[in-house]
Structures are given as structure tokens and as C-alpha cells.
Design a protein that fits this description.
4 helices; alpha+beta
Length: 167
């Protein structure tokens, strides 16, 4: 089965965001940061700088929230910079599934992944994500399919070859 998709900058950002929030390694690091940062800041203000509990808690929560917003903004800025400096990330991609593996091609490059090398297959309401390793994935927008039948045929063939359920 062969499909042609047109990936945008926003598609690439959503792939990266999906990895951050859904892949266990990155999700756990993010959760650890979200939990530990306020505790460290509260402890610093309360026990080292000797501020009141109320001030320390409010400051810890505010500084942590601002840090999280900055972190997300910074990551998105880096992802968008990567898109600008690397040809072939966005634009037309041709994805072909056959018995040998998954073949992806653009006007700039080609890649072939054997089915044994596919680490995971996931999905959400807008995309199907095929992870070729723990951080590198191919996102296929559901809008790339002509209809629901074509999408279901693609998913069925993907599950057949990878022996993984699209979750």
C-alpha cells in the first residue's frame, strides 16, 4: 500500500509533542521535573532564605509554572528551527508498506525500515505514529487518507506487518 502525505511544520511539532507526553522515557522526565521543581523552590525559599510558608509555596508554584511554559516554548522554537534548517522534514512524503518493510521517500531523501525495526505504533485522533526507534517516528496525518476505508486498510496492513496493535 502506498500513500502520499504533505507534512507541515505543525505536523512535525505535534509528533515531537506526542513523544514528550506519551513515550514513557520522556513523559517520566517531564513528570519528574513538574513534581521536583516546585519542591526545590519551596525548600529554597522556606529553609534557605527563611521566607514564610505561604510566600514559599506561592513562589514555588509560580516559578515552576513559568519554567514549564518557557520550557515548552523553548522546545517548540528548537523544533521549528530544525524544520527550517533540514530539508525533507516537511513537504511531500511517500509512504509505502510492503512485505520487506516501510519505505519513506521525499524529494531530498529515502529511508527503508524493516518490520523488525519498528519499535511501536500509536495513534491519536489526528495521526498515526510509527516509531522506528525510541525517539524517531513517522507521523501520518489521518487527513492523508481519501476516506475511512483507505485508512482502515492502511492500519490493518500496518498491524499485519508489525504484529503490533495500533493503539
Amino acid at each position: 500500500m502506498k500513500i502520499t502525505i504533505d507534512l507541515t511544520k505543525e505536523d512535525y511539532w505535534k509528533l515531537n509533542k506526542f513523544v514528550m507526553f506519551h513515550m514513557p522515557k520522556y513523559r517520566n522526565m517531564l513528570l519528574l521535573t513538574i513534581i521536583s521543581l516546585p519542591i526545590v523552590i519551596i525548600a529554597l525559599f522556606r529553609f534557605v532564605l527563611d521566607y514564610s510558608w505561604l510566600f514559599s509555596v506561592i513562589t514555588g508554584i509560580l516559578v515552576s509554572a513559568l519554567s514549564m511554559f518557557y520550557m515548552m516554548f523553548s522546545i517548540k522554537r528548537k523544533v521549528m528551527r530544525l524544520v527550517k534548517t533540514n530539508d525533507g522534514i516537511v513537504g511531500e512524503h511517500v509512504i509505502e508498506l510492503n512485505a520487506e518493510g516501510l519505505h519513506e521517500s521525499t524529494v531530498y531523501n529515502q529511508a527503508h525500515y524493516s518490520w523488525k525495526g519498528i519499535e511501536d505504533v500509536k495513534s491519536d485522533k489526528d495521526y498515526i505514529y510509527i516509531f522506528v526507534n525510541s525517539i524517531q517516528g513517522i507521523n501520518i496525518p489521518r487527513r492523508a487518507f481519501a476516506d475511512q476505508e483507505q485508512e482502515q486498510a492502511f492500519v490493518k496492513q500496518l498491524e499485519q506487518y508489525t504484529h503490533k496493535k495500533v493503539s
